Amino acid sequence: MSASSRILNLAVIPGDGIGQEVVAEGLKVLSAVLPQDVKLETKEYDFGARRYHATGETLTDADLDALKRHDAILLGAIGDPSVPSGVLERGFLLKLRFAFDHHVNLRPSKLLPGVATPLAGEPQIDFVVVREGTEGPYTGNGGTIRQGTEHEVATEVSVNTAYGVERVVRDAFARAQARPRKKLTLVHKNNVLTFAGHLWTNVFHRVAAEYPEVTTEYIHVDAATIYLVTQPERFDVIVTDNLFGDIITDLAAAVSGGIGVAASGNINPGGAFPSMFEPVHGSAPDIAGQGKADPTATVLSVALLLRHLGYEAEATRIEDAVSADLAERAGQPARSTAQIGDALAVRVAG
Amino acid sequence: MSASSRILNLAVIPGDGIGQEVVAEGLKVLSAVLPQDVKLETKEYDFGARRYHATGETLTDADLDALKRHDAILLGAIGDPSVPSGVLERGFLLKLRFAFDHHVNLRPSKLLPGVATPLAGEPQIDFVVVREGTEGPYTGNGGTIRQGTEHEVATEVSVNTAYGVERVVRDAFARAQARPRKKLTLVHKNNVLTFAGHLWTNVFHRVAAEYPEVTTEYIHVDAATIYLVTQPERFDVIVTDNLFGDIITDLAAAVSGGIGVAASGNINPGGAFPSMFEPVHGSAPDIAGQGKADPTATVLSVALLLRHLGYEAEATRIEDAVSADLAERAGQPARSTAQIGDALAVRVAG
Ligand SMILES: CC(C)[C@H](C(=O)O)[C@@H](O)C(=O)O
Ligand SMILES: CC(C)[C@H](C(=O)O)[C@@H](O)C(=O)O
């Protein structure tokens, strides 16, 4: 649904732990930034640990049908220690990414003025990772035999298709072309994972020929972690596989201000299914319900959501408000989740 | 071969790029530190880009037979841009690790006084990663169909066996038990790679029961990269899969002084095959032949080699010499590869 239709019909999934709190602030800022003539319709969905314990369900076909009818999805966080590892991840988060073909997992990293970084000096960080979201080792292919015995063999199969790799590589080239520095780095491990590595590398070079203005480079994933802490300024756009993207975007978030400010979009560029936007952080059960969670990552995810739906000016207003807010935070006493949300809502409306 | 036999029969593989230079210094320090009554016998082997271009060979059965007769192997670096990515990695480095069953890939990280780190503040870093070396996504299992077409499918299969996981987990518990802090962290991604993840997690818990004094924790690999830059002091011993180990040890090297000082051992603990010791860095063709390479990582790899062969006092002497040398480096003009080697040789002999 484009901006011109003037209804924004949003599925809201607060989820577990701090999810509830941060999503409330995300919606507060969203309401404040939307033009008067855009009607925001939200429907809240109950997913995560509570529902799993109550019903055994994580994400049903009926749920998917319902979610499909929205323009986009805003998610807080899913996950709780009371649920065995993997159940909600595979049964909800990944199931949704796969069902809605969220093949572009977009994760910008920008170190904003005034924001603390664990890195020494004054690193310049402003890049975006385009992580493939529907293939690689995340497909759930694999299995186990003789489980629990000394003869167990467990496999995980990374599946990579030319179709899947090419579409995400194309998306990344288009994003690089649109940025001032026009640089794209492919991160993989093509010297060891030679089958998948050759596919990624070949597709990358083929598409590169169509983007002569984009400077390209290839870096192994292990070396990429070094550069992320020693020369993060070398990155502009990074395109990478699902698992490598998972790893380097957490590191990227850590060096560019922490997961308290890291936003992400699980995007279906063609729009066949609604895209989902969520903070990179998890449900943080240890601080849940205390008003301590920083809603900034969720608010920035709302900006990505707006940009995806065509509300470019509103997205930029949110990002500017966050920059200004973060710049003022240094040295101030910690504010509550709601206080930060209020401050941002005032700024975007102003 | 144990220390009591008083012959140290070493295979030396200088390899490509800076490999030649750093290995020469490693041997210099080794000769200087060995007790008078230990006879050092070295045999140099020609592997890497030169031989590959001349003969097409990377590592033959005859080579393996010859290498097998040594007590240990010291390697400089293998790899050159003139050789297609993967050829020397799979055809030499990984082939050797697999042929000699180097299942314990040992990578200590210690931030020594005076050494620069990209991290702010004064991080305390002193941990060792026990990386599995013969399984996971490194097995070369997988393949490709319809290569080069738009219908290509390329797979990589991570193979994990109870046998392979248990032996490396046991090795890691024993190392943790022997250290003052007695803490072991399992790093995996068991919420997504559930087949392999359950195997690793179950084996880890089973072996943990035999080590009641060792504190254990589990961390996802993505979160581990965050902790490596925000709270590296939380780690004592880490045990992890081959690929995750590859990634986090480069990051660990970066935060603890750079790959110029990162050593590693590819160890066959039972001694059925010789173990191989090598700096974590690569062949760095851009600075090869200029006497600019820092031989410290190779010298520290020699220390690991000596400890593995039972020369504990000599290993410690090297490590102390390196600490002292690094502490004096700050603010001094850069020294050449040979100057650093000379200084270390003097120190260990003194
Ligand atoms: C929770 C988990 C399934 C997820 C992932 O691995 O993709 C998370 O780490 C992320 O990065 O969104
Ligand atoms: C060169 C490559 C095969 C190797 C690996 O991936 O193990 C290297 O990165 C390492 O860490 O020793």
From TrEMBL, chains A, B:
Top-rank lineage group of the source organism: Bacteria
Cofactor, free-text remark: Binds 1 Mg(2+) or Mn(2+) ion per subunit.
Reactions this protein catalyses: (2R,3S)-3-isopropylmalate + NAD(+) = 4-methyl-2-oxopentanoate + CO2 + NADH
Positions annotated to bind NAD(+): G282, S283, A284, P285, D286, I287, A288, G289, Q290, G291, K292, A293, D294
Location in or out of the cell: Cytoplasm
Names of the cofactor(s): Mg(2+); Mn(2+)
Gene Ontology MF annotations: 3-isopropylmalate dehydrogenase activity; magnesium ion binding; NAD binding
Pathway field: Amino-acid biosynthesis; L-leucine biosynthesis; L-leucine from 3-methyl-2-oxobutanoate: step 3/4
One GO BP annotation of this record: L-leucine biosynthetic process
Residues the record lists as binding substrate: R97, R107, R131, D222
Entry's family note: Belongs to the isocitrate and isopropylmalate dehydrogenases family. LeuB type 2 subfamily.
Quaternary data: Homodimer.
Function statement: Catalyzes the oxidation of 3-carboxy-2-hydroxy-4-methylpentanoate (3-isopropylmalate) to 3-carboxy-4-methyl-2-oxopentanoate. The product decarboxylates to 4-methyl-2 oxopentanoate.
Protein name, per record: 3-isopropylmalate dehydrogenase
Organism: Streptomyces lasalocidi (Streptomyces lasaliensis)
